[in-house]
């Protein structure tokens, strides 16, 4: 993938920065981003070619000195306070054409589906107003249009906005969300991920475009426990598909699977790997699952895709408080809503309402630069649950507390609430039938 | 922006997240929510079968993530020729082409091969590395991201295009200790080794000092006066060299030519399959930040992959394998040292200690 066929388009050799360090990253079987950068640098007559020449010069300079040379700043488009990542070069004296190299964070469609037509239009806009360099996608899920001058930022935004795209989040704000391929092409999907993604984010765009939260707040939507968009680790509000009824078993396909891979292999890789020892294999090669002990981990379904599938009574779990290291260390989301049915419009509205309650709690109670998971650690999960109107549930814990240092004089009242709730749940189930 | 333009700004149309249905392949749109099962005819190819009987074949290929418009247009040309003008991307920046005609699968694979896009990344393979921005665009990076990834994926190419690992291997890289790259079976992350060097002339003008003091996770930063100027100072005995003060206060330079090192972590897992999700754990620190090939990093990653491939059982992820064999065997098999720095000292560290008589020999 070297750029031999672009030699005619090169600017005069004297003007091109030598990039001996980067040049070494053009060989090898993996597609080379350096070759791509060179194509942009060598695109004769394009407005971005000089910028990409200096960008490559600066990047090579970084490789030689093992230092980054970008500073932040403030750049935005009319009416918005976020969505642009400003970058100013600290070595602009050496590389003036790329002295401003801002990124537009653009929200992708759920599941990252595109037509080639819309991608080509995006490329055209970015050739006209930007650097021609696009990352698909950033770690928050954004389409990252990388490399824009301050002057061109508004025009670039106007053009993509007219195509139906909008800026994503940056700074202390609601951030761009991600969802897995889900219902569009996956039999494991337990809800309409794209619908949930769009309804929730589009309900709170004000929190994205005009940053005023204590710090960032991220949503991610995975269709099942395989969590292909890493929601539990990365999202303040993780929505994970699950189901309440039994795993569906096609016994004929179970037998076919065993005939294909062998009994021992099936026992080793399915029965023995069940985390709650809920699977039995009968002597006639039929399978039995203790669904009350199953934790919906997805392993057996992943292995036996034809024989096993999620049940029909589907919905989502919500986990709150995942984040990366800054500043107290990495955190995973805590199970806060073990099950919300998610089929009808009313169900989706209920999820949106709960999301709104959580965002409002965060806005009102988090300290500056504190993620909601840190807030929960600071005040304790019971206080958070009370604030967002959720009752304690055994699914929220690995095990009950081990410390006796707690005041329990209202234990009987709390226990009475539990038994009332249990009775109500049982009653509602009966009524529902 | 000129005054003329500023006088007539275009109000944003706050459209939010675009509707994906308009871009979705028609077979996916038709069978949305109605899929029955899938299998993998070969590495890099998925076959999904709908309850309606429809089939869709997906061919997955690696990309460089940071793409020039010419590369994207080339991928679009391929999408037009083979996949009805629809494509999608995975979480790990692989591109996917969908088609209902099985006869197009092999010609598409051939075409991707000709154009230099490796087909793979499915099932028990090493998929594309999820990574950050690095020197190309970040304001606080200790290393590059795309370059590290290019070097590693060149080395791991064979494991991308086949499904010969015990289970999937997810690698991440991060250019600083904030760890934007996330958790991975293997994580290649910058690890700073020296406290920041402070330019006292600039602190008062550039940094909001109380915010910087508050940012420090170990309360090692305090206000100070140097040469009559208000600035900040660091208790270097307390400092854990995390770099958290550098973003809000660039005069506290955390990066150093020789002091910015790379650590490798193992056993992170996002999925809930079998075991609960886990964080990655330290395997080795203090590897040199040696652009453009990072050979010392590549060598360790290669050793870890080799040991895992040789010893893990089918479906065991890296962390599950290590849990079974024990950490002493992990360090033995990978020829890495276990040091006092592997003993966690952070909040909750006790929970990471062995509080039992269970030991491996």
**Tally of DSSP helical segments of chain A:** 15
Alpha-carbon Rg of chain A, integer:
26 Å
Q: What's the total number of strands of chain B?
A: 14
Question: From the structure provided, what is the oligomeric state, counting identical versus distinct chains?
Answer: heterodimer
Low-confidence stretches of chain B: none
Helix content of chain A: 25-40%
As laid out across the biggest beta sheet of chain B, the strand order is 1-2-3-6-5
Q: Output mean pLDDT of chain A.
A: 94
* Shape estimate of chain B: globular
Tell me what you see in this structure:
- The complex is a heterodimer of chains A (433) and B (361).
- With 433 residues, chain A is α+β, with helices and mostly antiparallel strands.
- In chain A, 37% of the residues lie in helices and 14% in strands.
- Chain A contains 15 helices and 16 strands.
- Chain A has helices spanning 20-23, 33-41, 49-65, 116-129, 150-162, 193-203, 205-209, 231-234, 251-261, 263-271, 299-303, 345-365, 372-379, 381-388, 411-432, and strands at 70-71, 84-85, 88-89, 102-106, 113-115, 133-136, 143-148, 178-179, 219-222, 237-243, 248-249, 279-281, 287-289, 308-309, 314-320, 334-341.
- In chain A, strands 8-9-10-15-16 form a five-stranded mixed sheet. In chain A, strands 2-4-7-6 form a four-stranded antiparallel sheet.
- In chain A, a hairpin with a 5-residue loop joins strand 12 (279-281) and strand 13.
- In chain A, helix 2 (33-41) crosses helix 3 and helix 6 (193-203) crosses helix 12.
- The longest helix of chain A has 22 residues, at 411-432.
- Chain B is an alpha+beta fold.
- Chain B is built from ten helices and 14 strands.
- A five-stranded antiparallel sheet of chain B has the order 1-2-3-6-5, covered by helices on one side. In chain B, strands 7-8-13-14 form a four-stranded mixed sheet, with helices on one face.
- In chain B, a hairpin with a 4-residue loop joins strand 2 (45-50) and strand 3.
- The radius of gyration of chain B is 24 Å and the shape is globular.
- Chain B starts with a helix and ends in a 28-residue tail after the last helix.
- The mean pLDDT of chain B is 95.
- The interface between A and B is large, with 129 and 119 residues.
- Strand 6 of chain A pairs antiparallel with strand 4 of chain B, so a sheet runs across the interface.
């Amino acid at each position: 993938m070297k750029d031999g066929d672009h030699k005619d388009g090169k600017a005069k050799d004297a003007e091109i920065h030598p990039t001996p360090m980067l040049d070494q990253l053009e060989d090898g079987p993996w597609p080379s981003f350096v070759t791509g950068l060179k194509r942009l640098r060598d695109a004769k007559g394009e407005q971005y070619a000089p910028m990409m020449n200096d960008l490559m010069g600066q990047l090579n300079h970084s490789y030689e000195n093992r230092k980054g040379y970008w500073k932040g700043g403030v750049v935005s488009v009319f009416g918005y306070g976020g969505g642009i990542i400003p970058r100013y070069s600290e070595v602009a004296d050496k590389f003036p054409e790329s002295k401003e190299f801002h990124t537009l964070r653009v929200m992708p469609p759920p599941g990252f589906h595109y037509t080639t037509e819309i991608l080509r239009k995006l490329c055209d806009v970015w050739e006209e107003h930007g650097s021609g360099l696009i990352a698909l996608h950033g770690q928050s899920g954004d389409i990252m249009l990388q490399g824009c001058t301050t002057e061109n930022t508004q025009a670039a935004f106007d053009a993509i906005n007219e195509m139906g795209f909008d800026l994503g989040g940056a700074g202390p704000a609601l951030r761009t969300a991600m969802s897995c391929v889900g219902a569009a092409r996956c039999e494991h999907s337990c809800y309409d991920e794209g619908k949930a993604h769009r309804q929730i984010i589009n309900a709170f765009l004000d929190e994205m475009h005009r940053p005023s939260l204590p710090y960032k707040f991220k949503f991610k939507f995975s269709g099942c426990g395989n969590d292909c968009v890493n929601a539990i680790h990365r999202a303040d509000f993780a929505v994970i598909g699950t189901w309440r009824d039994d795993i569906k078993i096609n016994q004929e396909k179970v037998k076919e699977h065993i005939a294909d891979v062998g009994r021992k292999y099936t026992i080793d890789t399915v029965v023995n790997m069940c985390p709650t020892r809920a699977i039995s294999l009968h002597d006639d090669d039929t399978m039995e699952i203790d669904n009350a002990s199953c934790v919906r981990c997805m392993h057996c379904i992943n292995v036996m895709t034809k024989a096993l599938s999620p049940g029909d009574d589907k919905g989502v779990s919500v986990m709150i408080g995942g984040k990366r290291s800054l500043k107290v260390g990495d955190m995973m989301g805590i199970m806060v809503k073990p099950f919300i049915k998610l089929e009808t419009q009313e169900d989706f509205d209920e999820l949106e309402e709960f999301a709104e309650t959580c965002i409002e709690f965060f806005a009102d109670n988090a300290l500056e630069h504190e993620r909601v998971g840190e807030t929960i650690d600071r005040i304790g999960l019971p206080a958070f649950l009370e604030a967002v109107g959720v009752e304690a549930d055994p699914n929220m814990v690995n095990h009950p507390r081990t410390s006796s240092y707690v005041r329990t004089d209202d234990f009987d009242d709390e226990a009475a609430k539990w038994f009332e709730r249990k009775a109500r749940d049982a009653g509602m189930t009966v009524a529902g039938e | 922006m000129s005054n003329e333009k500023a006088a007539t700004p275009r109000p944003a149309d706050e459209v939010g997240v675009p509707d994906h249905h308009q871009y979705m392949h028609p077979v996916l749109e038709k069978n949305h929510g109605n899929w029955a099962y899938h299998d993998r005819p070969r590495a890099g190819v998925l076959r999904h079968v709908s309850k309606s009987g429809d089939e869709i074949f997906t061919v997955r290929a690696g990309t460089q993530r940071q793409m020039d418009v010419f590369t994207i247009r080339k991928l679009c040309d391929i999408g037009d020729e083979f996949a009805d003008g629809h494509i999608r991307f995975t979480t790990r920046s692989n591109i996917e082409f969908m088609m209902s005609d099985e006869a197009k699968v092999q010609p598409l694979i051939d075409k991707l091969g000709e154009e230099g896009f490796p087909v793979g990344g499915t099932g028990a393979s090493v998929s594309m590395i999820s990574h950050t921005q690095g020197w190309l665009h970040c304001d606080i990076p200790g290393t590059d991201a795309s370059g590290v990834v290019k070097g590693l994926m060149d080395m791991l190419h064979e494991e991308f295009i086949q499904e010969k690992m015990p289970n999937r291997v997810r690698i991440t890289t991060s250019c600083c200790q904030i760890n934007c790259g996330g958790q991975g079976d293997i994580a290649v992350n910058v690890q700073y080794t020296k406290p920041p060097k402070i330019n006292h002339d600039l602190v008062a003008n550039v940094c909001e000092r109380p915010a910087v003091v508050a940012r420090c996770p170990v309360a090692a930063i305090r206000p100070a006066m140097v040469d009559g100027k208000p600035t900040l100072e660091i208790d270097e005995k307390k400092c854990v060299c995390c770099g958290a003060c550098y973003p809000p206060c660039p005069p506290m330079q955390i990066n150093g030519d020789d002091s910015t090192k790379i650590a490798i972590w193992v056993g992170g897992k996002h999925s809930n399959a079998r075991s609960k999700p886990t964080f990655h754990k330290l395997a080795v620190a203090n590897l040199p930040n040696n652009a453009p090939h990072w050979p010392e990093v590549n060598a360790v990653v290669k050793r870890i992959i080799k040991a895992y491939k040789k010893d893990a059982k089918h479906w065991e992820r890296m962390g599950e394998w290590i849990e079974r064999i024990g950490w002493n065997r992990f360090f033995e098999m990978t020829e890495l040292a276990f040091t006092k720095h592997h003993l966690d000292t952070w909040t909750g560290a006790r929970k990471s200690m062995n509080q039992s008589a269970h030991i491996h020999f």
